[in-house]
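Structure in, sequence out. Go:
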């Protein structure tokens, strides 16, 4: 089985989009033609849906979509900033920009129409359980609904109902969905390409954090949970399947690690981060391309 897994990370999804575009460039084939399963969380779930459509969106075009639509998706009006008390009493963003982008590029396509099996993560806040949306079990769910639900990061966007299930971002349990994908195929993989959205580099100073309570932890704890769980999955899979697991991740030395910094300067920095990753890991990308093409 040839498997691809794409992390969550908001606007930082530009990084895996560009790396996937490089895979398509080197192989001369679409990602859906190279894989037997694509797993995605949050922004990675959006990428997965776009790559698996019956008329797949080229990864290079998806990267352009992040740059074009990102500023509209993460656009906080003065009214929203005031009424949400800067995200403290309500979600930070109206989802109009996000929904417009999803509908524009995913249309009315359902999961059942995907050209390759998908795993899209979410978390049911009423049943209090992890949810994985699949074409086999959720064929009538639209890609727009699946993508909107998996990207409902707490404090950023409101939860989203998929049928009767109120879902939030799957990143609360699987920001790196590679282990979900590994389990889905029973560990029988020829290659598992795992695409990160950039590692956090800003420290949380001990002397400062020691005095924090609920209010101070409310925002950074989301990043801590996301980053820690991604690293845990990476270590587990590196031990379970060292010869067939390829993780393409980079430290964010220049770009912001914020999920919602869609400023022109940060988008340009994210592109440079991706270019440096591609240059530094060119040999691993070649090996991944070879295994996917075999």
């Amino acid at each position: 089985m040839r498997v691809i897994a794409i992390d969550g990370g908001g606007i930082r999804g530009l990084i895996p989009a560009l790396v996937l575009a490089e895979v398509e460039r080197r192989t001369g084939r679409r990602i859906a033609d190279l894989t037997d399963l694509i797993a995605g969380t949050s922004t990675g779930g959006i990428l997965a849906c776009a790559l698996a459509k019956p008329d797949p969106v080229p990864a290079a075009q998806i990267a352009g979509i992040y740059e074009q639509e990102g500023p509209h998706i993460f656009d906080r009006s003065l009214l929203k900033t005031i009424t949400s008390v800067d995200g403290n009493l309500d979600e930070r963003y109206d989802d109009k920009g996000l929904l417009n982008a999803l509908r524009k590029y995913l249309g009315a396509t359902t999961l059942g129409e995907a050209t390759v099996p998908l795993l899209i993560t979410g978390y049911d806040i009423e049943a209090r359980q992890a949810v994985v949306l699949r074409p086999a079990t959720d064929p009538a769910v639209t890609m727009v609904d699946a993508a909107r639900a998996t990207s409902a990061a707490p404090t950023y966007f409101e939860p989203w109902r998929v049928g009767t299930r109120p879902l939030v971002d799957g990143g609360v349990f699987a920001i790196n969905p590679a282990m979900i994908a590994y389990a889905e195929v029973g560990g029988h993989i020829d290659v598992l390409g795992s695409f990160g959205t950039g590692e956090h580099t800003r420290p949380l100073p001990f002397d400062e954090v020691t005095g924090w309570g609920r209010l101070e932890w409310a925002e950074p704890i989301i990043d801590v949970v996301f980053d820690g769980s991604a690293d845990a999955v990476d270590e587990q899979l590196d031990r379970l399947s060292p010869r067939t697991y390829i993780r393409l991740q980079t430290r964010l030395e220049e770009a912001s690690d914020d999920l919602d910094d869609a400023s022109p300067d940060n988008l340009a920095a994210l592109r440079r981060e991706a270019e440096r990753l591609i240059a530094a890991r060119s040999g691993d990308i070649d090996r991944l391309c070879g295994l996917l093409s075999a």
